[in-house]
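dude i think i finally got it to work??
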Amino acid sequence: MPPTMEKLTTLMTREGIADLYQQSLGSQKTRINHLLLGQPQTINNPNVKWPIPSVHDVERDFTSWYGGVCALGKGIDPSVSPPGVTEMVKYIATQFEQVKDAIAA
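look at this
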């Protein structure tokens, strides 16, 4: 199903963005793009555990990732108004345990 403006509006909420971030971390295909979280020595081996990030690591990684999400959202619909980066970083920090679980998946 093609994306719609309603879907974009739903995704660009605090909860929608946090969910997208956790999905990105939870997928082995997209997790390798989160360079600020560090990587195992052998990326091609699914049995190698990722290093456990600190809250600061997650905040830095999220800030970088979120910049891309905001740019994409604005590129699709210039009227989209995503939450501010400070608000989102604080929200993601409260989700730290879920983020660690997504990375460990």
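The two ends are 27 Å apart (CA to CA).
im so relieved honestly
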